[in-house]
Specification:
CATH class of the largest domain: Mainly Beta
Number of helices: 12
CATH superfamily of the largest domain: DNA-directed RNA polymerase, subunit 2, domain 6
Helix content: 10-25%
Structural class: alpha+beta
CATH architecture of the largest domain: Beta Barrel
Length: 611
């Protein structure tokens, strides 16, 4: 009897790193056997096996770049990590690598995870489960794993807290004083949080802390913390609360030019084209470099530099060939100020002289600065209140921050409340509390500590009004929360302008803070003013304060006229008429007329008397 071979289409396709290599009659059982061999160290632990039942394909993956996670293996409804092995692990008889070699722990990639059913807790294991999480908190990434009580907050707030943790100011590097980073912020008195997670400890983040533990009261304060504003004690700020120092590096190099000429770092002399006056160079040494600890403000020169002339030969009034150097010094940007922290004189990649100047400026919290807790509860400082005007408890404690209670229920950040209670309990007991997801310290533990310390277990206290001294008729929730100061500092965003530079083409003000520009009054804003009928305000914004110009217009042919300086007369270049009137208009309109003329269309302006 001849056996019939199964058609290839019925067999399981076997792919190795995405390339089709073999066929097999039973891919599912082959996948199970390969996994068993991997657990017995007969197959590399780096390999992952994924069986796709829908397409009847078996993928064996060994290539680079796969993100893999460790899981405890579960067999017949029981974890392979038995109490006996756990005891040996605690006694340091075994380590992590032993667990991997013994097949108790294995690393899975994103594709092999499709063939698994993973239990979060050991008590949840059923005969269907294939793996168990090493720690329930592992379902979070590195940033979310550092946040306390993420399982008590709504997911958008966790996303926000993750984004803001990256913007928090702390000690970004312990050798910051030796570095010349473009911009860096260092907190004066960083603290480790009182409520922290196991991942925070594992990453040793207390060595790079980025925030401070603040006494926070949840109440309103005369409307100054409406919405997401936060009232801050001025005395706490004076004592160094959330204070940071900004380091900014400016650099300049002696550039080489095609003609063999090069820039020179030196103290510019009065004969240099563009000399800024003696006052501008008062901080510079004889070499043209600023002295450390000099106090500088916007547009003051940091490094004196001269460049060769743009053209090799410049003919003077008397016909002689004259070469004049240009002034091209490095100066501080407008609106900035600080002290020169350090100066580095070295060589650039091309062997040219390179100077770096680091400016140091303290950034004291002020109205408009952004601060946030680790629960996505962000806000700006709305008021700085003197210590004596802040509400106080019976023991004389005044909060550092007053946060509006309306911020909590609608955002569903119960984790923030738990941290407030936990921080208070931790500060009373003198211990660090655990805020690790699914296994952190519980509310009951906090209540017990607070009761022993003589507080109410709810964390609420009677407060007294700092302005009147009267008892506030409501109990106020008060505790300790870890707050971060974020990168959005109002001093770096301040943007005002009266008069300043204008664009060459349109004669309108430049755009952007860096170019000392104005704020654009756009089409929609104009529509609002039209709706209000505020015609004089429209004229002021779009003409007087923008690109107002007076142009001569011919009353006969309607074209733009000019002033003939030879004859000292206003003449129309088209019809040579002298009937010319000065007309007020926007320079952009005059530009439009010029562009229409370039299309061989002749626009006419019909000029009439106002009367």
């Amino acid at each position: 009897m001849v056996k019939r071979r199964r058609p290839v289409s019925d067999k399981t396709k076997i792919f190795i790193n995405g390339a089709l290599k073999y066929h097999h009659h039973d891919g599912k059982s082959l996948a199970e056997r390969l996994r068993e061999r991997r657990r017995n160290n007969e197959l590399s632990g780096q390999a992952n096996i994924f069986y796709n039942a829908k397409l009847n394909e078996l993928h064996i993956l060994t290539d680079k770049g796969r993100v893999r996670r460790p899981y405890i293996v579960v067999e017949n409804g029981k974890s392979r990590l038995t109490p006996e092995i756990l005891a040996r692990l605690r006694n340091n008889e075994l380590n992590w690598h032993h667990l991997v070699k013994m097949g108790i722990v294995e690393f899975l990639d994103a594709q092999e995870e499709e063939n698994t059913l993973i239990a979060i807790h050991e008590k949840d294991i059923t005969p269907d489960h294939t793996h168990l999480e090493v720690d329930p908190a592992n379902i979070f990434g590195v940033v979310a794993g550092v946040l306390p009580y993420p399982e008590h907050n709504s997911s958008p707030r966790i996303t926000m807290a993750c984004a803001m943790a990256k913007q928090s100011l702390g000690v970004y590097s312990t050798n910051f004083s030796q570095r010349f980073d473009t911009r860096g912020y260092v907190m004066y008195y960083p603290q480790e949080p009182l409520v922290q997670t196991s991942l925070y400890k594992a990453l040793k983040l207390k060595d790079k802390a980025a925030g401070q533990n603040c006494v926070v009261a949840l109440t309103s304060y005369h409307g100054y913390n409406m919405a997401d504003a936060i009232v801050v004690s001025r005395s706490a700020v004076d004592r160094g609360l959330e204070r940071v120092c900004m380091f900014k590096t400016y650099e300049t190099e002696e550039r080489m030019y095609p003609g063999g000429q090069k820039d020179k770092i030196e103290l510019p002399t009065p004969d240099v084209v563009g000399y800024r006056g003696e006052e501008a160079y008062r901080h510079l040494s004889e070499e043209g470099v600023i002295m450390p600890e000099s106090e500088v403000e916007g547009k003051e020169v940091l490094v004196g530099k001269t460049s060769p002339p743009r053209f090799l030969e410049e003919i003077s009034v008397f016909g002689a060939v004259e070469e004049k150097k240009r002034e091209s010094s490095l100066s501080l940007k407008s609106g900035e100020k600080g002290k020169v922290d350090s100066v580095l004189v070295t060589e650039g990649p091309g062997g040219n002289r390179l100077v770096k100047v680091r400016i140091r400026s303290p950034k004291v919290p002020e109205i408009g600065d952004k601060i946030a807790s680790r629960h996505g509860q962000k806000g700006v400082i709305g008021l700085l209140v003197p210590h004596e005007d802040m509400p106080f408890t019976a023991t004389g404690i005044t909060p550092d921050l007053i946060v509006n209670p309306h911020a909590i229920p609608s955002r569903m950040t119960a984790g923030h409340l738990l941290e407030t209670l936990g921080g208070k309990a931790g500060s009373m007991a003198g211990v660090l509390m655990s805020g690790t997801a699914f296994s952190g310290s519980t509310e009951e533990e906090f209540k017990e500590i607070l009761t022993k310390a003589g507080f109410e277990d709810s964390g609420e206290e009677i407060l007294y009004d700092g302005l009147t001294g009267e008892q506030i008729k409501a109990r106020i929730f008060i505790g300790v929360v870890f707050y971060q100061r974020l990168h959005h500092l109002v001093s770096n965003k301040m943007h005002v302008r009266s008069r300043g530079p204008v664009q060459l083409l349109t004669h309108q003000p430049t755009e952007g803070r860096a170019r000392e520009g104005g704020l654009r009054f756009g089409e929609m804003e104009r529509d609002c003013l039209i709706g209000y009928g505020a015609s004089m305000l429209i004229k002021e914004r779009l003409l007087e304060e923008s690109d107002k110009t007076i142009q001569l217009v011919c009353t006969e042919c309607g074209s733009i006229a000019t002033h003939d300086y030879a004859r000292n007369k206003d003449v129309c270049p088209i019809c040579e008429s002298e009937n010319v009137e000065p007309i007020e208009m926007s320079y952009a309109f005059k530009l439009l007329l010029d562009e229409i003329k370039s299309l061989y269309i002749f626009p006419r302006m019909i000029v009439k008397d106002k009367g």
